[in-house]
Amino acid sequence: MSDREPTPPGLLRSVSILAELDPADATSLERLARRRAFAAGDVIVSESERGDALYVLLEGKVKVVLYGESGREVILSIFKEPGDFFGEMSLLDDEPRSATVLAMEPSKLLVLSRADFRAHLARHPRVAVQVMTELSRRLRRADGVIGDLALLDVLGRLAARLRDLALADGEPTPEGRVLKNRPTQAEIAGMIGASRETVSRALSELARRGDVVATGRRLLVRHRLLRRPD
Fold first, then answer.
1. Closest alpha carbon to 77 in 187, 175, 163
2. Tens digits of residue pLDDT in 5-47
3. Alpha-carbon gap, residue 105 to 183, rounded angstroms
4. Which of 33, 86, 87, 193 is most exposed by smallest CB count within 10 Å?
5. What distance in Å separates the CA atoms of residue 107 and residue 72, rounded to the nearest whole number?
6. How buried is 197 (Cβ within 10 angstroms: 0-12 exposed, 13-18 middle, 19+ buried)?
7. pLDDT over 90 for what percent of the chain?
8. Is the pTM of this model over 0.70?
């Protein structure tokens, strides 16, 4: 992907921590950013490497993962919407990356260097508050994931993750919320620390209970599952 390829207008202002940019500042910052393309399976950033950039998704789909001692992959987040971003922590604390990010499909990203990002913070102090707010939100979500992995059985972890996905991305319907393009069983397995086969059995159990209804890539999560902790 050419660095000279234009960035979609207003993209940086769709990033939560940069939402208060005026159009002129957004255009200036977009000119400083590089554009990079990654093939499916490419490592975008690696855990423990020195971080020096903020990444903003232009198109495609990426996942943030941790690996256990056994090599099992745990998916912390999946980013698939233009304007989704990652890498902000290492821009602020100069510490190594806390997770690995992989391209799940051919993806294009905007890359903003630490120096340019910090210069922007110096000119716009309110952005620092937005950064802290976003970090707090992500830390709370990570705490929830860790708590679920430690305290819930597979069925409970699956129910909790489907509830979170439906509330975040599902389309409201009279019966509940519909995920139009639900994650694959392999992806869900990575999210809840289980095997794909175990996820398949747990999904079947939720369907038998009437908590979910799967039709192709669509998944209806009924109100009863949205309301109750499992």
1. 187
2. 555 656 777 777 677 667 777 777 777 788 999 999 999 999 8
3. 13
4. 193
5. 24
6. exposed
7. 30
8. no
